[in-house]
Amino acid sequence: MLKEFKEFAMKGNLVDIAVGFVMGAAFKEVVTIFTGGIVSPLIGLIFKADFKDLKYIIKEGVANAEGVIEGEVSVMWGAFLTSVIDFIIVAFVMFMLIKGINKLKKKEAPAPEAPKGPSQEELLAEIRDLLKK
């Protein structure tokens, strides 16, 4: 069983997936910082607020003695939209990366055709000629 697992784990596709996963996770962090540090503030200029903090308040909360609001119910649509933007950026870059890799891969040469034997007519003509002798 250990040998089978080793063969499975060392297959090229699984290793490629693992490398892609690690690179994707690292790239996701870069995109998150890009979106939070550049895109969100620019969009926030339009709404005159931090984009990630935009929310629709369903039920107002009450500030406690420490000034922390308790009991508020809200829809955090700004954070959701930021995550959607992150996803779209990551998906687009991954698409372009895969497209580039596919172009770089060598196109497989078509397998040489099997040598064709004589046609049925040629065989029949050959048999006829042999029978004439």
From TrEMBL:
Q: Could you tell me which NCBIfam families the record lists for this protein? A: mscL
User: Can you name the source organism?
Assistant: Snuella lapsa
- Subcellular locations according to the entry: Cell membrane; Membrane
Membrane topology per the entry is: Multi-pass membrane protein
- InterPro entries in the record: MS_channel, MSC/AndL, MscL_channel
Quaternary structure, per UniProt, is: Homopentamer.
Using the UniProt record, give the first listed, main subcellular location.
Answer: membrane
Pfam families on file: MscL
Alphabetic keyword roster: Cell membrane, Ion channel, Ion transport, Membrane, Transmembrane, Transmembrane helix, Transport
Regarding protein family, the annotation reads: Belongs to the MscL family.
TM spans, by residue?
A: 21-47, 75-98
- Protein's recorded name: Large-conductance mechanosensitive channel
Q: What is the lineage of its organism?
A: Bacteria, Pseudomonadati, Bacteroidota, Flavobacteriia, Flavobacteriales
Q: Main role?
A: Channel that opens in response to stretch forces in the membrane lipid bilayer. May participate in the regulation of osmotic pressure changes within the cell.
